[in-house]
Amino acid sequence: MYEYIGKHKLFRARYLYVGALLASVMLYIDGLLPLGVAGGEPYVVLVLFSLFSRDRRFILAAAVTGSVLTVVGYFVKPPGAVFWMVLVNRLLSLVVIWVTAFLCLLQSRSAAKLLEAHAELEGRVRERTAELNSANDLLRKEGAYIQLYNDIVVSANESQAVEGAMRYGLERVCKESGWPVGHIYFSGKNGHLVPSSIWYFEDPMRFETFRRVTESTPLASGEGLPGRVMSSGKPAWIIDVTQDANFPRAKVAENIGVRAGFAFPILIGTEIVGVMEFFSSASVEPDPRFLRIMANIGAQLGRVIERKRAGDEREYSREQLRRLYHRLELVREEERTRIAREVHDELGQVLTTIKLELSLLDKRIDSEANSGLRERTGLMLNLVDTTIQTIKKISSDLRPPILDVLGLSEAIEWQGQEFQKRTGTRFEFASFPGEINLDPGRSTTLFRIFQETLTNVARHAGASELYVSLTDRDDIVILEIRDNGIGITPSQISDPRSLGILGMRERALVWGGQVDIVGEEDRGTAVTIKIRH
Is the model's pTM score more than 0.70? Predict the structure, then answer.
């Protein structure tokens, strides 16, 4: 500004010097010629020269100076010219000077208006440029907000862990806003907010005091920044937490290292399940657009917690069903044992008594006189023997006594030999050389899974050989069954209609075990059951 004024003054001074020089030269020439300098017309040059100054005052001053010099030139010219001719020329010169001055004034005014219009246009251009720059900045900011929202939405949809999704959200928001601290309060019992250990720090050591104070400060609804969000259900902003009456953490320590803060709710529908808060080291005015984006982000992050809840409820339901299944299996085994005992003891005793009576009756019948009757009693004795064997088989199928008397290894070997007799499939069994001590529940589970596997081999495998091994490694009992049949396919293993496989796995899961099934086309199937002691 001052530099411009100085240059303008210098320009005026130079103009005055040049104008004075021109006037002096013309007056000197005017004094040498009888008619003056062509009757005074050259004084118009002063007016034309003043036009370069772009100052109306200089133009008027030049016109006045030219007029005065025209009159003065009349008196200083040498004698010898015709009086009336000199007078007319001088008058014409005055007219030309003022007409030229008038035209110069019009041109100066037009130039001034043109400059004013140009300046106004430049001002509008600058204003419009500023508006465009502001709009571009706003668009860039909105684009960054949208990208932030999209990134967090993708993370929330893909993440299965609540903590991982929350940490990512804190980091992205902090980096986008340029704020160095982010933290989460979760909703606890009785509407209180409980501080979590999920943080984002740009410089952890710098904010150690604030972290320690926060993690020891639960908040009620309406208390502090998170409490306000909990109470209203909307984002909140504090310009300076150290000057805010409702920010308890600022009163705990003399310097907590933060100033501005904003927070927004994490929502599942209308339920507030947490509050995400962020802090800056300086006082910052609220940004409504940013808060609106944060409100939408809170709803997206709530989906992660919602999925976690649904997963927990689903797992709880599965666990309840698994316990119910386990209870039903126990009841079923108890009922099988009871029925097997009653069938073996009571029905077996009755049939044995009938057999004894029939034997006595058979001996008392005269074979010669009652050959037909002797034949009938013989048939009845055979029928009773067959029935007794059937009862033994039914009793053994319901609950093999060998499982309770001799243990799991002997029961598996006996069942395998029975399977070989019934199907013709060659059976080989290898057992851990030491004694395998399992409680009755786990022994029964392994035996029943083995029986189900034999059923599947008989129905679907078309195998000619069956290899079974029972080992105990690192307190884990491993039962492996391999056949040389057609092999099970992956689709059959994962088929939800394969109730036999599903039942085998559920039986093992009751004890924290697992069932692995691997099949290879035309090379058989391997079933591995693992149950910890």
Answer: no
